[in-house]
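Interim report, section 4.2 (structural modelling).
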Amino acid sequence: MDKIFYPGSVAVVGVSERPDNLAANIIHNLLAFGYGGDVHAVGLRAGQVHGIPILPSVRSLPEGVDLAVILTPAATVPGLLDACGQKGIRRAVIESGGFTEFSDAGRHLEEELIATARSWDMRIVGPNCISVINTENGLCLPFARIDPEATRQGPVSVLAQSGGVSITYLILLSEMGLGANKVVSMGNKADLNEIDYLTYLLADPATEVVCLYLEGIEQGRSLLELAASAPKPVIVQKANRGRASAQIAFSHTAALTNDDAVVDAALRQAGVARAQSFDEAVALAQGFTLPPVVGDDLLIVSRSGGHAVVAADAAEAHGFRLMPIPADFATQVRHMFRANVIAPTNPLDLGAIFDFNLYGRIVEASLDAVQPDALLLIHTYSSGPEAAVSEQLARHLGHLNRDLDKPLALCAFAQRDEVEGLRRATDLPIFIEIEAAVRALAASRDRHTRPARLRPLPSAPAERSEKVEALLSRQDVSTTDVALDLCSSFDIPVAEWAVVTDQESARIAATNLGYPVALKGLSPQVSHKSDAGLVVLDIADGEQLRAAFTAVSAALTEHSHHQAVRGVMVQRMVPGGRELIVGGKRDPSFGPVLMVGLGGIYVEALDDVVLRLAPLSREDAREMLEEMRGRRILHGMRGEPPMDLEAVVDVLLAVSNLLITCPEVVEIDINPLLALEKGAAAIDARAIVGSQRT
Amino acid sequence: MDKIFYPGSVAVVGVSERPDNLAANIIHNLLAFGYGGDVHAVGLRAGQVHGIPILPSVRSLPEGVDLAVILTPAATVPGLLDACGQKGIRRAVIESGGFTEFSDAGRHLEEELIATARSWDMRIVGPNCISVINTENGLCLPFARIDPEATRQGPVSVLAQSGGVSITYLILLSEMGLGANKVVSMGNKADLNEIDYLTYLLADPATEVVCLYLEGIEQGRSLLELAASAPKPVIVQKANRGRASAQIAFSHTAALTNDDAVVDAALRQAGVARAQSFDEAVALAQGFTLPPVVGDDLLIVSRSGGHAVVAADAAEAHGFRLMPIPADFATQVRHMFRANVIAPTNPLDLGAIFDFNLYGRIVEASLDAVQPDALLLIHTYSSGPEAAVSEQLARHLGHLNRDLDKPLALCAFAQRDEVEGLRRATDLPIFIEIEAAVRALAASRDRHTRPARLRPLPSAPAERSEKVEALLSRQDVSTTDVALDLCSSFDIPVAEWAVVTDQESARIAATNLGYPVALKGLSPQVSHKSDAGLVVLDIADGEQLRAAFTAVSAALTEHSHHQAVRGVMVQRMVPGGRELIVGGKRDPSFGPVLMVGLGGIYVEALDDVVLRLAPLSREDAREMLEEMRGRRILHGMRGEPPMDLEAVVDVLLAVSNLLITCPEVVEIDINPLLALEKGAAAIDARAIVGSQRT
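Predicted structure of the assembly:
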């Protein structure tokens, strides 16, 4: 991989003297960025571009070229790649489009391309990408011209599925004064994919922060385990969230569509900050270059009361506390400066102090007096004499930031030219939006106070009891009683039941269980039993039982479609409690996922569910319950006793264990799980094993 | 008011030759912006600033000065104002701070100031503001220096409670190429307030869009009735949303705190777009300068597939539909240009077309073929040769925009200098963030497809029945039976009841109503009856009734604290249905507000409530039900019959009518209101009249 980012020599294939030749832009970029290695050009017609002679074929290249960059019609690429292989070239960037993203024929070409690369033990970037930029050595391979003046070298590397987006990041990072280090547009990822690049960038000493722009996440689990274990901050912008974007995402980079709620949960669990826009991603990167924020206490200092109010709104929205300013600090500041100019409030309003030279001292004094976890200074100034003093202030804050190891976020409101002046004056990131600054501080806090908790999947299959083996091998594992049995095998408490096939045994079972009871017709074919008349609840006595049994048996016969009737479940009714739904499924990209939500009709009506990747820790499970919007229902409202949250946590851990231990379980739902004042009880369940999905 | 924005002459009071004199900046600004009227300076010491002589007193000013601008210590302001009055000056801008926002002494000074102004029939801007800018005539009165180069004249006027924010708006509007017209920082609003300024700007021919930045809304109802009736778009950024920001908001401009949920509902109802940040407000203003968006059909055209995916996500989030592209359009484009370069998808990906001259033709052809309600073109380009063609493209789109009267939003990703070049090339607004562009189009669509529906409050009190009069005059109006009686008087269906005081009459009442019944102890002192043991539900027979009556009577005696026991309510239990809560309250700024939400424990746990200002139309009431997150619970889930939504709508209209007709009702709650398969029934209610709030 190192030779892809730091090649000693590059051959660009597809160059011509025609003014609209795109490969010539690659030569142009390499020269404009001062790339120090050898640059060769290959094209159909002899000539030269930007002083580099065009060689007629790959064969005519000198020996020892490190990297080939190919931009020719798709159909020619496998042949050219083979020629590169023969020439000893072991790395290629394929910028051409027309592969999997375009047509079935393109898909075949891509397969051919991969086979050729494999046969030469060659690694490929792309195809269908605008490739790689490394600001460290001037390697700039996009086929669109990039202006070196508009790019700034810095600590942030970018991995993007889209070429256009990678350039947008490069320019935004540079304009925001932060700068980019390495930029990769991955294209179709026929060979090298985000995991390969991310592994490299996380180990790259020049990269301090990684931004990923992704439209589809194929090996989500591995990607996030990688990110979770890394000491460097990772920011992900995951687009292609809805149905409308899925089609275009596929057609332009052959991306698959992920369940966005799973993506969200997985990123949070991996300690990865999710950005919703390019601007937000860049702001988060700015925040990660500050010293870490290790708590919720924020001090806001502002020249304008209005900006302070906006900042206080943002602070509250992002879970910061505005600590009170000690009274003696106010006295101290009064003595330092003029009388009565500062009220001891947080936000601290400096509107009445016009000497910016004092601001640095006030910031220093207030850090000392208030000891916040982060400080946000909102500085508003005009051009002219104020600008020069503001640059001094920014420099001073930059020193403070380093010397005190405290995160000082500076948000500047001034003319654009003046803000650029600040950026020239200091390495301190300059924010230009209050919300962005506060969001960036919050992301740093989250990273440093809520460490990544994505636990790896076990490498070896776990041991299972004979009972579990037997249950999983049954054809009717999706039926309530078998699914409840499976739950029970994992120590999930269930409401007692018996399966009967006639009136008399139903009567005996009900008497043994104790009234009231419920009847449930057992049918693996029916997923909504209530709708099919297969469920009667609250049966109070033998008379009601008789009528219910007759009705359920009839419904069962009707729905069983010539299959043998399995029987009727008589189940004890559990009084009281609150209905929850607990479920697990296997995401194709992220693996086993746990779900909890309000049960009954509310789970459907309100969509109040919380997801987490398995395996769960007890802390994860507790957090899941705390993140439910309707959590207060479990806490005991209006003087009611609280439900036994730890019992629900135990059930979540058990379902997590079940998913990990039984890879063939594709989906399992306990619906409802009753949370009780003491304990919990699974009332109904459904499991889907292997390909049994109905 | 016209003389405030277009004065023939200005006198600045508080000027000195000292280099840190702020009033001198006002003189500087007036000269730098080429203000054409006479400029006078008044200060304690003779001298001159920027060539203008400093006169020793207000008295020494010439006659006929239109506007005084005062920036002197607070204590001197009332006296100076009186001197201005004597001199015939009838308008003053008071920039000094130190009034209500600062201290009690300051509040007295502000009262004195107002009394002085009234005595001279003088109108006041401020105090505690950085005042007024009019780009039409160069009137630029802030005490901070403003750079004329950084400001651009345009169609957007700004009203801001904060001075710093007003300047931020001025600079952002200018940098985004849109430009500002009039900018007002209102300060403490001791005399002129947002209603006065908004009235003026809505009538001002040079103002096309108004942006308001507010921290507290004092006469919300009047402000929004004004905005709702205006043909010009109004954008509001309302800060001071949480507790943390309230203190600083008060201390810097003496703003009160509003209930943010009421603000949100009121703005939507008035057809006002709410912006969450400065950038968003400016983007919305950009959108409002395009031809109106009159439907949900959006066509996205992009050079980069990645940007297209991000745009499709945003379109879906903002309720746009991406219309399919007709197959023949794809054929047509293939013939127009090269074969197979464009797939007929929306977003339309132009990544394979490198000749920007074709883009304008493709946009025109696709508008014709697809007939969308709006088109978003995302244009990504590099500097050099692409930049010049991009400017031509922007000009072409600007013409299309005008000629076809279709909203074309252009979002450009390029180096900042290049974007500035586009802005010089065309008046078409250039967006620089996809989300911002889509949000702006959505705001235009909302404005043009969902007209403002804020209905004015009746000017005269409505007639009321004798029964209503009698109920409202009762001391115990907060008690369930009286509140339900009040509901019933407004034709709200209620569950039948009787009030009894002994076992025997309870038995008779229960028999008459029919079992099951509920018992409720009537006590105006207790607001949570269930918690106090005053409620027993589902009483099935006489035996249970006896026990329940004894228990409730005992609880009632315990809670009545020596007051006469009012009695016990025997109420018919209404079977089935879904619990809702319907309420009304009187907001100090916005007047009567209606509320509906899921009832029972869910209203508290999920906070799923929808608000609207009264009086409601039937359409408003229907929308309220549709906006509940849990609305599907009423629609009949899993094969259950739907609830009678129109009956709930009738109840909402009745409560609206009650609030309008009975101004002394401060608050009323029907909790629960049962929505039934047919009809609805109020089960419990509470009303608070006048100062009876407990």
